[in-house]
Amino acid sequence: MSLDEIAIRPFTSADIKLSNVLPIRYPQSFFLQLLLLPARICLVAYPRSDPQNLIGFISAAYSPEPPTDAKIPRIEILTLGVAPSYRHRGLARRLIRSIPQHLCASHSIFFQANVATSNTSALKFYEQLGFRIASDVITNLYRTTSSSKDGYLIVGCINSD
């Protein structure tokens, strides 16, 4: 399946029961919180032929107005996941690039995210997007996981197009 056959739309409450593409299983309350809190954007990807089959998810927090000390808007990626059979096809990159489009941004966007120190595939992915590690190891960042609990802050700019 090509990326042209995949659509992206805002996440809705009807999608909560379908949200199984993230590597960590989150409770329904997590998704409800994302829908209810202001300044959150959540997008899902699905095959155009099967809108109920969610194959990608991204959530992010944003500031409608950039802080006075920032020249460009800032977005924090909270969660990003792609179903295993759809990985390595550019879908995660497309989900990230869809955020500025859904916010009607017409300029560069500063992104930040936290990544577990042991998640080498995510670190490589973000590096390919032009992101860099911007912190020392943050100890015990992930308190609820059974694997590595340490993480990094990564940052990068993406031009909306």
Automatic annotation (TrEMBL):
EC class of the enzyme, as a word: transferase
PROSITE patterns from the UniProt entry: GNAT
SUPFAM superfamilies, sorted: Acyl-CoA N-acyltransferases (Nat)
Every N-acetyltransferase domain range: 6-152
Alphabetic keyword roster: Acyltransferase, Chromatin regulator, Chromosome partition, Transferase
Name this polypeptide is given: N-alpha-acetyltransferase 60
Domain of life: Eukaryota
Family per record: Belongs to the acetyltransferase family. NAA60 subfamily.
GO molecular function: histone acetyltransferase activity; protein N-terminal-methionine acetyltransferase activity
GO BP term, example: chromosome segregation
